[in-house]
Amino acid sequence: MSKEMDNLTSGSTFFLMGFTDIREIQILHAMLFLLIYLAALLGNLLIILVTTKDHCLHTPMYFFLKNLSFLDLGLISITVPKSITNSLMNYNTISFLGCVSQVFFFFSLATTEVALLTVMSYDRYVAICHPLRYDSIMSRGSCVRMAASSWLSGGLNAILHTASTFSTPTCGSPEVHQFFCDVPQLLSLACSPNTGEFVVIGLSLVFDFGCFVFIDISYIYIFSTVLRMPSREGRARVFSTCLPHLIVVTLFLSSGFFAYLHPLPKSPSLSDLLISVFYTVVPPTMNPLIYSLRNKDMKMALKKLRMTRVCQLS
């Protein structure tokens, strides 16, 4: 066995090939990703700060929203900063432990987010379709258990994916044609078919599809209830909040389904690489816009926080 293959089997280093090797485009990619990352960072940190400081927002909806912001911060932070650094420094390596960490935390956070989005759709369903029973169904204990179950499902799924992905020796050039250690690309490096990981991927897709169906059913009931509302303004408010949420969830899950189900080409095209952006970068950036800037309570809480800060400085 060659020295290169020995090194690859021991997993010392992988090469993240990214989007291009053209220096000018690498710099442009780094600047674009930096702007997106800062926007996601600011938006999610604001949500965490406001929902923590403002006691009026200590409700089930904002409890889940705070959890979602933590997830989004982690999800975008495990992939984008490394990609930005590599592009700026024209340095595309990642250590074996770094790659393992990306796979583990990506699946942990992504699976938890899918589960939490499902819980959030159920919360909205109960609030709109069964408002009189809302306090009893969505009690503090129930909310904590649902959030904990979401985090637990993410952790278990991450352990299964990480263990099975790196259980098979890899052969050939350690080039990962992606801007982060994505499992489909890692599987293409395996010396033999990784049956265990294919089984785990299948189970994950079943779980994600089940969550997607549950979310869709919840929104069907929500929209049918909203359409019977006498207030046109009330209907518009619910639709303006729920529709963008549903669009981002659909984009998040459908792009993930496509990436993990379609046959991986030997030389991934730019479109194949861009699809990964829709399940790694877009949701953490868009969720704060959907849940804060379009939300009256969040706007009031932000204004109150800003006024308090001004009074403290004066």
From TrEMBL:
Membrane topology: Multi-pass membrane protein
Taxonomy, superkingdom: Eukaryota
Record domain G-protein coupled receptors family 1 profile: where: 43-291
Membrane-traversing stretches: 27-50, 62-80, 100-122, 198-222, 243-261, 273-293
Pfam short name (any one): 7tm_4
Cross-referenced CDD domains: 7tmA_OR14-like (cd15227)
GO cellular component assignments: plasma membrane
MF (Gene Ontology): G protein-coupled receptor activity; olfactory receptor activity
Keywords annotated in UniProt: Cell membrane, G-protein coupled receptor, Membrane, Olfaction, Receptor, Sensory transduction, Transducer, Transmembrane, Transmembrane helix
Family, similarity comment: Belongs to the G-protein coupled receptor 1 family.
PANTHER family on file: OLFACTORY RECEPTOR
Protein name: Olfactory receptor
Gene name for this UniProt entry: LOC102509634
